[in-house]
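Sequence in, structure out. Go.
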Amino acid sequence: GIPEAARRASAFPHQLSGGMRQRAMLAMALVMEPELVIADEPTTALDAALQIQLLGELRKQVRAGGNSLMFISHDLGVIRAVSDQLVVMYAGVVVESGPTGEVMAHPAHPYTAALIDALPRLIIERRLPNPIPGHLPAPDRKPAGCVFSDRCARVKGDCRKTLPPVIPAGIDREVRCLFPIE
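Output:
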């Protein structure tokens, strides 16, 4: 997808745009035909048009090659566009997992719900993001119980005592919460 590809093949990275560098990186990752492609924030610093183009090309190439894709991102809008399964982590702990559409439509963990509520809705609702209060704990100062308990609006005494077990939250869904959203 790079214009004048033959001429650009001998260019140095600083001579390419950010989108061209991202596409070149994608090509280098896929040329070896890996079974699993791990893309960690691949659309960071790209404008919306380039994000759409890169994600479309990534999906096309991964599907054509029969590969699997692990897409790591903080951008739930991008995640919604590229993933079938979603794993939500907080402070290094998986707090919810399941089919992307289900998790996004009906979050079971308070952190997942807060992330979704933090998405800007500027077009239809004309609403700015609703930030999550508090701060992420330092790795050496995680709460003894639920890792999200210091920021959770639904916290109860037991939440601060022990790490909640992983429980079913529907078909092919799991949540790590003592008081999941129903």
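Check: The chain has a mean pLDDT of 88. The longest helix spans residues 48-65.
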